[in-house]
C-alpha cells in the first residue's frame, strides 16, 4: 500500500510537471520563431520557469522516497 | 532483483566514509572535499599565468567567469549585479564541480545529499533577504511584499501568500538540486543492475536486455553531464532572480 502511494505520488506529480514543461517549451520555441532577436532573454526566462516547474515534479519524487522509507 | 536495488540504494545513501573515521566524514563529504580541492587547483592553474590573451585552462576559466558575470549577474540584476558576482560565482563553481565530479564512476556528487544543497539554499535565503533589508530597511522590505496598488481588503491575503512563497524558496532550491543529482544516479544504477542481472542468468532475453541497457546507460551518462551543467546554471540563475527581487523590492 505504501509503495502504491509512493508510485502514485511520483506518477501524478510527474504528469503535472510534464504538462507544464511542454507548454513552457512550446511557447518559448514559438516566441523565438516570431522574434529571433529576443532569443537570449527568452531562453533565460525559460530556464527560470523550467526550474520552478521541475521542483514540483521532484517534490513528488522526494515524497515517494519518504513514503517508501 | 530487489536485493540488488536495495544494494544500489545503500551505495547511494549517506554513510560514514570509513569505519575508522573519528569525525563525521561521510562518503558524500569525502567527494565534496575532493571536488573543492580540484576547484582550487583549477583556479590556481588558470590564474597563475594571467595574460591579456589567455590560453589553455585560462581560456576555459575566463569564458566561464565571463558567462556567470555577464550572462547571469548583469543580465538579470543590471549593473548592480557585479557586486553580487563573488557570491554567485563561488556558488556556481562549487555546484558545477560537485555535479561534474559525480559523473566519474567511483565518485559521488557532493550535491547529491540534502545536507549540502539545503545549506546552500539557506545561505541564499539569508543573503537575498539580508540584501533587501539592508537596502530599504526591515519594515519597508516587509511592506514591499505586498505590491503597491493592491486593494486594502486583499492585502492580508496577498501578504500571507507572499510570505509562504518566500519560505518555500529555500526548500524548492535545495530539493531541486538534490533530487536531480540523486535521481540521475539511481537511474544510472538501475540500468547497471539490469546489466548485472542479465549476465547472471544468461537466457535468450538477456541477449536483448544487455545491449539495450548498455546503450541506455551510455545515453543517460551523457544526459547526466548535461544535467550537471544545467542544474548549476538553474541554481545560480534562480539565486540571481531572488536577489534581483530583493534589490528592486519596491517596484
Q: What does this entry look like structurally?
A:
- The complex is a heterodimer of chains A (69) and B (251).
- Helix content of chain A is 91%, strand content 0%.
- Chain A has 69 residues and is mainly α.
- The two termini of chain A are 13 Å apart.
- Chain A has one domain (2-68): F1F0 ATP synthase subunit C (F1FO ATP Synthase, Up-down Bundle).
- Chain A has two helices and no strands.
- Chain A is elongated, with a radius of gyration of 16 Å.
- Chain B is mainly alpha-helical and 251 residues long.
- Chain B has one domain.
- In chain B, 76% of the residues lie in helices and 0% in strands.
- Chain B has helices spanning 2-12, 27-48, 57-77, 85-101, 114-136, 138-143, 155-200, 204-247.
- In chain B, helix 3 (57-77) packs across helix 4.
- The longest helix of chain B has 46 residues, at 155-200.
- The mean pLDDT of chain B is 85.
- Chain A binds chain B through residues 41, 44, 47-48, 50-52, 54-55, 58-59, 61-62, and chain B through 75-76, 172, 175-176, 178-180, 183, 230, 233-234, 237-238, 241.
Task: Provide a brief overview of the structure.
Chain A has 69 residues and is mostly helical. Chain A has helices at residues 2-34, 39-68.
CATH superfamily of chain A: F1F0 ATP synthase subunit C
User: What amount of the residues of chain B lies in strands?
Assistant: under 5%
Main interface by residue count: A-B, 13 and 15 residues
From the N-terminal CA to the C-terminal CA of chain A, the straight-line distance is: 13 Å
Give the terminus-to-terminus CA distance of chain B: 57 Å
* Shape descriptor of chain A: elongated
Into how many domains do the coordinates of chain B divide?
Answer: 1
Give the number of DSSP strands of chain B.
Answer: 0
- Report Rg of chain A: 16 Å
Oligomer designation: heterodimer
CATH class placement of chain A: Mainly Alpha
Structural class of chain A: mainly alpha
Strand content bin of chain A: under 5%
Biggest pleated sheet of chain B:
none
- Main sheet specs of chain A: none
Query: Unreliable segments of chain A (pLDDT under 50, ≥5 consecutive)?
Result: none
SSE pattern of chain A, N- to C-terminal: HH
How many strands appear in the DSSP assignment of chain A? 0
User: Helix segment count of chain A?
Assistant: 2
Amino acid at each position: 500500500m505504501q509503495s502504491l502511494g509512493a508510485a502514485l505520488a511520483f506518477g501524478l506529480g510527474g504528469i503535472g510537471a510534464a504538462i507544464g514543461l511542454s507548454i513552457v517549451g512550446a511557447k518559448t520555441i514559438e516566441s523565438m520563431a516570431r522574434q529571433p532577436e529576443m532569443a537570449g532573454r527568452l531562453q533565460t526566462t525559460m530556464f527560470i520557469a523550467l526550474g520552478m516547474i521541475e521542483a514540483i515534479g521532484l517534490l513528488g519524487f522526494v515524497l515517494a522516497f519518504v513514503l517508501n522509507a | 532483483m530487489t536485493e540488488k536495488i536495495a544494494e544500489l540504494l545503500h551505495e547511494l545513501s549517506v554513510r560514514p566514509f570509513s569505519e575508522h573515521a573519528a569525525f563525521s566524514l561521510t562518503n558524500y563529504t569525502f567527494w565534496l572535499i575532493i571536488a573543492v580541492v580540484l576547484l582550487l587547483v583549477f583556479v590556481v592553474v588558470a590564474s597563475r599565468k594571467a595574460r591579456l590573451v589567455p590560453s589553455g585552462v585560462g581560456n576555459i576559466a575566463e569564458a566561464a567567469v565571463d558567462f556567470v558575470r555577464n550572462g547571469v549577474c548583469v543580465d538579470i540584476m543590471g549593473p548592480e549585479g557585479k557586486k553580487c558576482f563573488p557570491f554567485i560565482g563561488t556558488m556556481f563553481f562549487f555546484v558545477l564541480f560537485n555535479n561534474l565530479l559525480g559523473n566519474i564512476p567511483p565518485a559521488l556528487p557532493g550535491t547529491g545529499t540534502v545536507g549540502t544543497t539545503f545549506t546552500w539554499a539557506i545561505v541564499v535565503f539569508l543573503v537575498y533577504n539580508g540584501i533587501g533589508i539592508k537596502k530599504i530597511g526591515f519594515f519597508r522590505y516587509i511592506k514591499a511584499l505586498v505590491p503597491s496598488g493592491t486593494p486594502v481588503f486583499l492585502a492580508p491575503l496577498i501578504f500571507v501568500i507572499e510570505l509562504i512563497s518566500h519560505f518555500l524558496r529555500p526548500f524548492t532550491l535545495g530539493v531541486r538540486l538534490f533530487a536531480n543529482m540523486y535521481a540521475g544516479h539511481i537511474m544510472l544504477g538501475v540500468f547497471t543492475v539490469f546489466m548485472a542481472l542479465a549476465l547472471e542468468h544468461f537466457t535468450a532475453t538477456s541477449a536483448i536486455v544487455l545491449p539495450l541497457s548498455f546503450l541506455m546507460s551510455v545515453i543517460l551518462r551523457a544526459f547526466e553531464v548535461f544535467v550537471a551543467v544545467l542544474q548549476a546554471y538553474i541554481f545560480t540563475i534562480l539565486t540571481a532572480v531572488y536577489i534581483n527581487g530583493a534589490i528592486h523590492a519596491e517596484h
